[in-house]
Amino acid sequence: MTDEQTETVEQSGTAQRIARFEQRRRDDAALSDEALKDRFWELCDQLVEPIVELARTHTSPSIERSVLLRMGIDSRTTHGVVDAVHAAGLLGKGAGHVVLKVAERDGLPIRAAAAAIATDPTVLTGLFGGRR
Amino acid sequence: MTAGDPRPGLGPLAENSKLDVEAVLTDLADYRPARKGWTWRDVPADGLDLGPFHYRDMAAPLRRGIGLPAAKYFDGVDPQPSCVITSEIASGRFEDDLRRMRMAAWHGADHLMVIRTTGQSHIDGLMEGTPEGTGGVPITRKQIRASRKACDLIEDEVGRPINFHSYVSGVAGPEVAVLFAEEGVNGAHQDPQYNVLYRNINMYRSFVDAAEAKRVMAGAGIFQIDGAHNANATARAGWLVLPELMVQHGLNCAFSVAAGLPKELIGLSTVPPNAPPAPKLWFDLPYAVALRDVFADYKMRAQQNTRYIEADVEEAIRTHTIDTLISMLTSADIQSTITPDEGRNVPWHYNNVRAIQTVKQTWAALDGIKELVSLNLSGPLGEMARDIKERAVGFLAEIIDAGGYFAAVEAGFFVDSARFPERNGDGIARSGAGGVAADTIVPRDPDYYAPVCDHFGANTLPEGVAKACDSIGGCTLCDPDKIVYLDELDPQDTAEQRLAATRDYRSGHLLRPEAEWAGDGVALVQLMIPDRAELAREAALAMARRMGLTDPEVINLQVLQPAEGCFVEVKGKVGFDIDKRQLTIPTPVVLLPEDELRAAVKTHEITVVAGTVGEDEHSVGLREILDIKHGGIEKYGVRYRYLGTSVPLAKMVDAAIETGAQAILISTIISHNDVHRAMMTKLAELCTERGIRDRVVLIAGGTQVSRDMAAETGLDATFGRGTTGIQVVDAIVTSLRARGLIDG
Known about the structure:
A: mainly alpha, Helicase, Ruva Protein, domain 3, 2 domains, B: TIM Barrel, Defensin A-like, Rossmann fold, five-stranded parallel β-sheet, 22 helices
């Protein structure tokens, strides 16, 4: 395809988009301001719904470090813990959960358990029913 | 002083003492914020009576503050706008910013916003300590704790809560949110779209993190501001992207509510998108109207326009005045101010204050404007507002057609500079597989557990655990004593080290001018150079060097006429110190009590003769000194004989002899060729020749006259601008007493 042809295709795409918008606008012309506003919020809610679901069911290193901070673990140690938990494939359990498990298993306070994980990730072996 | 004392080591601030920054940095490990959460201003529903006026839309006055310059004509009133006022303060050295925060608060700011150092949004984790920043401040626990402590002291001083604010964005959003919640930060920017579009952070990571951050902010009552306004600051023609702005605001609002933020904690960051010479109102007003209609449940944080402001401070102030007018014609819960020098340098102390004054002055002038004028929504304004809303709805519908938000970002829907549905193809496209921290989100297992409060999303509490943090005996949000305070990681780059280098300028004997940092020596020189721009620029630099400024730089040049000349502003550095101990400060004159003056005047029947002398027809100033109506000497019982204008000195002296006046008052405005000095000297000589010098008090006044001219001209007292009758009566009585002519 030549450059000229590409441009023509894009132009027709743009023309279609504009036509679609103009059609929508004609359809919405009868809507009161209040109804138009409701439509705006329905569409926003519809768009964020799958994103909220993604957030509800996923976590991230920063979320897990933020959990550890709330457990009273200093910011430097949170990095070591999350890196070790991630490497062990256990981030989906929750890093705080992992620290808690180590603390319970080894009879350690929370901070000591976190320090142990950051120093020596092998303490994670066997946690959660033998999974690495 | 006990542990947990909210202000260890620091008492209340004293008006005439500097903030002791070293003391603020002391004992931070035990410091706890005085309160948490956002605070609005206290606005009396029935309005407010201040001085001679009734105000309709003003907040409770400050305990201590500084009013507008003209306030002295209105009983010193300092009306405070009903909206919260923001000042952005981030010079790179937060320890120097603390003093600026105090200055800003005294002028009426109660929302102090700290911009982060360049690149912090890409740091995957918290920073610690107090390293120096660039274009902002490294946000750390120590920096926040010290700043919040300073804000706690300042709010006690001015008598109004200070909202402290920074940014919960970047790849460490959830951690920063927890830090802010723990340390009592009151407001924060949080908008995952900003990360994606402007910081190229992976879109999935950005949104997953944002939900957690927003939930934490909700728990701590932190007010959220979004980042949509960056689209009209980035797009080539900011006024065309209005439908998209609504879409960005809408998506962040909907997502925030879903994450648990109450609507009253959600603010839209909105900027009037245009600036003169554009016909600003035809773009900005319909947009403001449409936005406030669609987002009626949310708060408006009105920002001032920065897109078209460069070097001219006055141009910025004029545009910001109109921006504030738009806020008042529509609404603003928070009025942000932009320092008028932002386009030419990192903001300077006094420009924060000038920006606040712009809002304060406009708000006072237009107080209650909506009771006087209303927007005509039945005309083009209503049609234009409707058009923006329809386009925004069309934009949203097209995102759904494209397969949802993430697909639309990949297709470059956002920050395209054309007006929807037109498109220029210059939007910012991001790939879901790319960006900073791509591929870092992890699905939560069915037994995922986070044993803390304010956590968003799936959280499977173990059996028997009712509250998430019960299994650890409480999290830091429930028990602040669990927070771990780290001081410094790099002992070579700390606030304490920087402070040690500037101590002499802050608490010692030395003075240098200061724009941003203690002892920076920055000075601004304003010049009119009567030549063409190319020459004027070089000449200005040469002049600044000859004045002794180092590193001179032209930061503004306005052509007045291509051949006749330019206005040039040059900044440079002063390389010397002034030792305060070597300065002589004039002794302040202490006036006799009013009653004592009246009694002396009455007992001795003091009379004076007065007039303007020389070829001088200006009599307004003298009449104010004489007349009872203006609080002149008549008010204190002095009888005067006014001889008129352009009175020959000999006639003044004759009149004094004839009436037995104890004093002669002359006024002289014209100062060409020092004619005022000549008149004053001649009066003294004439009185000596006529043998009355020892029994009359000789006083002169005028706009070019100063207090120290009395000695050089042989008069008893001389007065300049702003003099009042009582000062003149005091001078007469004091002089007569000193000569033993009257008792007392």
